[in-house]
Write a structure and sequence with these properties.
single chain, alpha/beta, D-Maltodextrin-Binding Protein, domain 2, five-stranded mixed β-sheet, 15 helices, 10 strands, 16% strand, transmembrane, signal, Twin-arginine translocation pathway signal
């Protein structure tokens, strides 16, 4: 439409046309600026800043000058991360386990190649509640990171095993970074999340520890790593490097807690005192050695999803599990963070 033609339109319509044009222009700029692809030897990894995903910042740091760069992108919610993976904007994601099952069922081409550090999720309660068990939270409101989370499944599983109704505890979704504030304002009575978000409330004194996840679900899987099928197909050596470095990052952190805390706190933008508390309370809690994905464990997650009404049918989960990369990793001590790439 020519300028003089635009001027002949009624004022309201003219404003609408200009507004639509502006939206299109801004949208195009957004796509241009955010749709830029990384270099060919550059892999983008999405993650949330929790201990189960410690490998993400460690591998990012260790590959800053490597021939293949693995860059960690921190997300504010799992929903945003899943959409970035679905769209291909990121090629790998440290993501909450049930959401990986849901993405697979929806046809997103992915493989589970690594299980994040385990036994690092904690349920905290408002300090004034003084409940002694999860069953005493009946009628209370507890936040979980997302509906498709192992934390929701763990609560539902516990209630079932205790013979309680599934809705005995009201579960709501709140992104982990917002949980401490929601608790302090009284919007919720407690929350269940990966560390260090629970420790933030414990250190500040607004909450008390109620349940460690391993007490109600031994070997609980919080997050795992998924990679896109085309990365496995076209660059299996890159995937091996990524998985090897992820596994070795856990053993490095286990033996160099102070260094791991400093690196994680810097990447996460968290108080080092909070991160240190999460790593060491209670001492030796976190499991760094259960990193190999297994179809049986994913089927257990899927079964809990079906029980909670989050999954229909029985998808072939063997098609989403690729454990050859994790099985190829040699377990040994790692002397420094730069050595996570050396095997």
């Amino acid at each position: 439409m020519m300028p003089n033609s635009l001027q002949q339109l009624p004022a309201a319509l003219r404003i609408a046309v200009i507004a639509i044009g502006w939206v299109i222009l801004v949208g195009g700029m957004h796509f241009f600026l955010n749709g830029e692809r990384p270099p060919a030897n550059h892999v983008l990894m999405g993650y949330m800043p929790v201990i189960t995903n410690l490998a993400a910042p460690v591998v990012d740091y260790a590959t800053r000058e490597a021939s293949v760069r693995f860059e960690a992108l921190k997300f504010g919610s799992f929903a945003e991360m899943s959409e970035a993976f679905r769209s291909g904007h990121i090629q790998a994601a440290f993501i909450i386990a049930p959401l990986a099952v849901a993405l697979h069922q929806q046809g997103v081409p992915l493989k589970v190649v690594y299980i994040g550090n385990r036994h690092e999720s904690t349920l905290v309660q408002r300090k004034d509640l003084q409940c002694r068990s999860l069953s005493e939270m009946r009628g209370k409101t507890v936040a979980v990171p997302i509906r498709y989370s192992g934390h929701l499944l763990a609560v539902k599983r516990y209630l079932r095993e205790q013979g309680m109704e599934p809705e005995s505890i009201r579960l709501v979704e709140i992104p982990p970074p917002d949980m401490p504030a929601a608790l302090s304002t009284g919007g919720i009575d407690g929350y269940f999340v990966g560390e260090p978000f629970a420790s933030k409330a414990l250190v500040s004194g607004i909450a008390t520890r109620l349940v460690d996840v391993e007490a109600i679900w031994p070997k609980f899987i919080c997050n795992l790593m998924i990679v896109r099928d085309d990365l496995v197909r076209d660059h299996p050596d890159w995937v091996q490097t990524l998985v090897t470095a992820s596994v070795r990052s856990g053993f490095w952190a286990r033996d160099h807690i102070e260094d791991a805390v400093a690196l994680a706190a810097r990447y996460w933008g968290q108080d080092p005192k909070v991160v240190s508390y999460a790593f060491e309370h209670p001492p030796g809690r976190i499991r760094f050695d259960l990193y190999t994905p297994a179809v049986e464990e994913m089927e257990q997650v899927a079964e809990e999803m079906r029980s909670a009404g989050l999954l229909d049918g029985r998808p072939d989960l063997s098609a989403m599990v690729e454990n050859r990369f994790a099985r190829a990793v040699k377990v040994e001590k790692v002397s420094s963070v730069d050595k996570v790439l050396v095997q």
